[in-house]
Design brief:
By secondary structure, this protein is mainly β. The protein has three helices and 28 strands. Strand 27 and strand 28 (420-423) form a beta hairpin. The longest helix has 16 residues, at 4-19. It is globular, with a radius of gyration of 20 Å.
Amino acid sequence: MKSPLFYFIPLISFLLSACATDTNAPSLIANESSAKTKSADKKMSHKHEKKGVCADTKAPPLSKCADTVTATFDNKGVLWAVWTNNQAIYVQSSKNKGKNFTAPMLVNAKPEAVAAENESRPKIKVDVKGNIYLTWVIMLDKKRSSYVRFSRSTDGGKSFSTPVTVNDDLQVIRHRFDSLAVGKNGEIFVVWLDARDYEAAKKAGKEAKGLSLYYTVSTDGGKHFAPNKSIAEHVCECCRIDTAVAPDNTPVVVWRHIFEGGIRDHALVKFKDWQTPYAPQRLSKEQWQIDACPHHGPALSISDSGIYHAVWFSGAANKQGLFYAYSTDGGKNFSESVNFGKEGTSHPHVLAFNKQVFITWQHFDGKVNRAFIMKSNNEGKTWSTPEIIAQTAEMADEPFLVSDGQNVYLSWQSAQKDYQLIAIQ
């Protein structure tokens, strides 16, 4: 059985059309068969055949029938999870670390074509007052067009506000791969990939590379959002972005960027305040030259001491797999990267907890999906031996790390099985 990296490389070209990359470069798999490409798509996608109760569109909503489950803890130790079934978004909570959940609460009264697979999925955050905030992407009728949506609950999840669109550009084009962060004073920060500059460049007959990074902020609990602003152009079209809040209570965003020469490594921007970004900084330097979107975005976590911890994927010829690095100067410089995941690995996620740092990722050997974990007790300087924390022969969602302030947990969903919250420490 060939490793998943074998399948990943031809899959990149398959995904090229889905990302609407603006190059006319020849296909990366000109000599590969279409059957092999379809095989890659089947192995890498979270789409799977629904069976039993999950195949019944009239059945009550069940989280095990969702392709993705995204979770977070509030400051009282309650776990909140968001997922989708049949164009509906649901939220549940658990007071006993995922053993039992409340009944699903419907968020959107009107059905929407919610993007909920792989790295495009609904997000959930809870502020210090217990207000719950959600963002997600809906697909529009035009191919590859989408909007970013928002809803909130101010009554502990008993009800949710009517969803609103946060991208103020309402062209039927791409607005997607959102990231949500909430500040210490209830600031709501939403950032996403946006095609408005790309479309404008095309109309003007100019060269367009990738999408742009746009953001908006609400300082009144989500009642109103500020006009959208741009952070950067030439951003990779289909890779997730991630946002962390620094100790000075400002957002920090990471993404895959398109650098000069078609290099698709990663970048980072620190904000001066919630409305003002500093100049973007380069994060990774594998020099991965590729005319397609890798569908693998970075992740970031910032410790209370201000150390930035970043993880990412690269397919560069001499630097392949998963990487970790840290910064002690606010993202201006990063340590030499550690290549901790090789063939078959994907979707790294990182969480800083006191002076400890945890990393999880997924490994697929052609038959079994495994979630790995490794830990550092000295803020990323040295690492434990990677260990398998969960596995399944079914299709599986990406693994994530969450914390209730006391312990760290793996948050993981596999096809048509109950959601798993597994204690790490």
